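User: Fold both of these, please.

Assistant: Here is the first one.
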Amino acid sequence: MQKWEYKVIIRQRQSGFFADNNWSVNMCDFLPEMGEEGWELVSVVPLSSEYGEGKAGFTSDEKWVFKRPKDESAG
């Protein structure tokens, strides 16, 4: 039976008057590297750690889940 290993990347951004709203990880630059290492994107889950008036629907965090076949020959 195939076994898998998983990698989770959490990327975040801040909001507010002085925030630049940029993500902590640029996934466009990161995805080719992940593919070269054999990782396959399973899901992206939007999250929000921002509360308060005007924050409804604001995605401040994302959880990116990747998987790849586990190397049975390694340890």
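And the second sequence with its predicted structure:
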Amino acid sequence: MADTLYFSRDTKMYVKIGSAIWEIPVLDGFSFSQANNSTEVTLNEAESSTGVSKRGRKVFNDSLAPVEFSFSTYARPFLSAGSGAGAADGSGKQHAVEEVLWALMAGPATYSSNAFTNTTTHGTGTSADLAIDFSESNKSTLGTAEVFFSLDDAGSNPTVYKVAGAVINEASIDFDIEGIATINWSGFGSTLTSVSKPTKTIYEAINATNNYIRNRLTSLSITAADTSTFPGAGSGVYNLTLIGGNITISNNITFLTPETIGAVNTPIGHVTGARSVSGSFSCYLGLDSSSNVGTSTDFFADMTSAAAKAKVVNSFNTVFAIGGASSPFLKFTMATAHFEIPAHNIEDTIALETTFQALPSTIGGTNETVLAYRGVVPDV
């Protein structure tokens, strides 16, 4: 009888690219699994002369499905101390605990000299940013890593599962006004195996208490490209105060698996689909009795005007500053977002909900969004 049980709260997660191994603190509710694909063959015949009709069946294991995993992390930027065990950098540059996950989502995730080539740019000092762009994301395959889930990590005999060929498919941020900025990640891998526990090499700021981002400080800035159709409060600006919202980035990945008969096939890799950056936001339906320009009621009126209905594609420079203007924060800038016509949400306080699609400036572009982190020196 087994005398050891494993509890999710004793688990730690690690991500390995090359020789670098990051510890990524995850929240409760993570999951990982690999299912099996099978084929069932059944018999269907009439009765024989003796009144017998065979009704048997046979089952064949065809292949392993891709590993599916999901987990959540807090958004946690920090200014590296530039030295010490587990330091993210050799100098005082901006980083984030979860930056390796963004690198996997946004391109090949080639790691060298404390940065991901052409994906992350690390500013120096308290007034600089960690910038993450998607300029390398127009690829049929993205970067992969080895993801480890170490059960009973601090125990004397942990059980460790490795997801090989892991790729990040989706990242989603929900604006829970009362909460801490949280990113929900999901992805796929080729195989799930038991291995020994890895030794982390990058773990700066994972125990800090001052690099969490408060959602209540989040601000939203919207500026229309067409200021004639969408004048707002002058220069196409609308002043909307968030009560909720979401941003989701998806790679729409598909895993490929051979179909050779007589063997249990294993997934061999992935291909990307159309890149999607979308989301929604909600605000109270507000009216300024004096001028009512740039308010949510003005926004709805402009979006439903005759001129707006004549534009099948609109363009708004949209900036979500999660955490506000002071460190720590995470800023999403979507320069050419397309807005759908807002809908009313009838509750105790009537709200306006708007869905948007962050589009590139050209059909082949990669500039749907740019992320900017700014953190502080970790207190631990």
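The first helix runs from residue 99 to 106.
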